[in-house]
Amino acid sequence: MARSNNKTRGNASPPQTPCKSCPLRQNKAFRRFSAEELEFMQSFKGGELVLDAGSTILVEGTNSPHLYTVLSGWAIKHKSLEDGRRQVLNFALPGDFLGLQGSIFESMHHTVEALTGVVLCVFPREKLWTLYEKHQGLAFDVTWLAAREETILGDYLVTVGQRRATERVAFVLLHLFRRARQLELVRANKVAFPFTQEHLADTIGFSLVHTNKTLKQLRRTATFKWTGTEFEVLDEKKLAELAGESASVPSVRPLI
Amino acid sequence: MARSNNKTRGNASPPQTPCKSCPLRQNKAFRRFSAEELEFMQSFKGGELVLDAGSTILVEGTNSPHLYTVLSGWAIKHKSLEDGRRQVLNFALPGDFLGLQGSIFESMHHTVEALTGVVLCVFPREKLWTLYEKHQGLAFDVTWLAAREETILGDYLVTVGQRRATERVAFVLLHLFRRARQLELVRANKVAFPFTQEHLADTIGFSLVHTNKTLKQLRRTATFKWTGTEFEVLDEKKLAELAGESASVPSVRPLI
DNA sequence: CGTTACCTTGAATCTCCTCAATACACGTGG
DNA sequence: CCACGTGTATTGAGGAGATTCAAGGTAACG
Fold first, then answer.
1. Residue A3: which nucleotide is closest by CA–C1'?
2. Which listed residue, of A119, A191, B203, B223, carries a Cα 20 to 30 Å from B186's Cα?
């Protein structure tokens, strides 16, 4: 279940990263932008926002004048019921785009919270329309990102609705591992997972206790280790089998 | 659980409906298109496809050269695991857009199946790019539709992950009732629901038997009637309370 | 060195699943 | 017309799976 953690501290205007030399764009997972596109992104970008772990980035039911791209760090998207039950919808990693719903509808339909310290690129949402008018390639990219989110939510819905306990845990852990690997966050099959068993429980729709017992059972398969923050995959093939079927992680993607 | 039903019969080129006089556009729920937009939609539209109930419209893992808009009828979007377990992701009603994933990724990530006879507007996907280039308003609409799908999937994920049995059933029934009402398919609080308890079970992540028993329990609240195909709401406020919290149905939407 | 956050485990209970049987409506072919 | 098969809805019984409650353990941090 959720805990309340409402601090939102952060620094505006830290040392800026020019889009041309964006560290994320070095990664082959992101499609190459043209010079004009990069120039536009630079003009679109209103600054950077640095937030501590635990900060709230966007709030369900409210509206932000900004769109964000995660430059570094992890965040979590979730929705809550009145009595405190909480469902994690998805995780946000570097390159992920946040706040589109607020620019399209009257308000956000979920909350986004930083799991680690994060650096966000900030875009004023009133310029989103300019992007559609002047850079159709980027407009298509925005649609791409929305469609990808839809795909992930669909995979998670299948997981929560149909998979059994060990499958659910294996599926989510492997999915996050593979996303992290695509972003070159994995070294020697190890990656820092900055979330707790409670986050995992709220992702797969189980209680914390049952999630813990399922993890205990899964550890006997010796397909992974997860101690403290470090997650290590020992037998990816077998873990993928335990997950039932793995979620697709597109190999090339846009970086708005 | 799923049954296999692979017939795909249909008639191409039936009497065509010109976009200008599209019956759906009479409905105030859809935003008004400019003359140029209507003209483009007319040129974008490649024809109409009429399919019987049970027909498969799009198949997970494959790719279709077409995009579709539902002109009339109901369809269901679902994903299956190898052993036959099936998760319904969403329902498609008139005005809903189908096949975007196939135009953005290598293939569809879910299957779409007609629940009733349906009439679909057919669009060649290679012209989607022209839409982005020439009609940014429509491009934004495509993004809007993708974001709306994301919102609904998020609501369903919360429902399956966190709500208890009666809440799940009430939530989905009310959500579909309200979507149907927006499309003027509801007369005297009654609407034809063209799906079975098995479809509902696969939507909320329960077995058919347990779904049936939950329905029996819910009927005692006298908030609705559901006999045969007809669904009638008797006490919407109370039903909404039983659902826990209702999903948003945007009041104005685009019709691609 | 106490507090806090997170992880772990056991016991009792309840929710939900599977299996199995029955009932009903409908359409098809004899 | 009736007999039969099929799809859907309903109900009971027994057991697997998940929840809640409760307690204890460990590492990090001031």
1. C5
2. B203
Mean pLDDT value of segment A59-70: 96
For chain B, say whether A251 makes contact (Cβ under 8 Å). Answer: no
For A182, list phi and psi in degrees, rounded to 5.
-60, -30
* Covered bases, chain D (protein CB within 7 Å): 7-13, 17-22, 28
- Please provide residue A97's backbone torsions phi and psi, each rounded to the nearest 5 degrees: -105, 130
The span from the CA of A248 to the CA of A61, in Å, is 30
Q: How many angstroms separate the Cα of A50 from the Cα of each of A13, A68, A77, A237?
A: 8, 11, 18, 37
Cα distance between residue B179 and residue B150, in whole Å: 16
Closest nucleotide to A211: CA versus each C1': D18
Backbone angles phi, psi at B151, to 5 degrees: -65, -45
Closest of A77, A75, A72, A64 to residue A194, by C-alpha: A75
Q: Which residues contact A77 (CB under 8 A, 6 or more apart)?
A: A88, A89, A90, A91, A92, A98, A110, A111, A112
Considering only CA atoms, give the Rg of chain A: 18
B72, B22 Cβ separation under 8 angstroms: no
Q: What is the pLDDT of residues B30-48, one digit of tens each?
A: 999 999 999 999 999 999 9
pLDDT at A66 over 90: yes
CB contact under 8 A, B105 and A147: yes
Interchain CB contact of B85 with A (< 8 Å): yes
Give the CA-trace dihedral at A154, A159, A162, A167, to 10 degrees: 160
Indicate the residue type of B238: K
B116 CB less than 7 Å from any atom of strand D: no
A154·B158 Cβ contact <8 A: no
Of residues B248 and B74, which shows the higher confidence score? Answer: B74
| pLDDT tens digits, one per residue of B80-121 | 999 999 999 999 999 999 999 999 999 999 999 999 999 999
Give residue A5's pLDDT: 42
Q: Is A253 on the interface with B (CB under 8 A)?
A: no
Are residues B112 and B98 in contact, defined by beta-carbon separation less than 8 angstroms?
Answer: yes
Average pLDDT across chain A, whole number: 93
Interval A85-113 mean pLDDT: 97
User: At residue B19, does pLDDT exceed 70?
Assistant: yes
**Which residues, in sequence order, are CB contacts of A163 under 8 Å at separation 6+?**
A171, A244, B81, B85
Rounded Cα distance, A109 and A131, in Å: 23
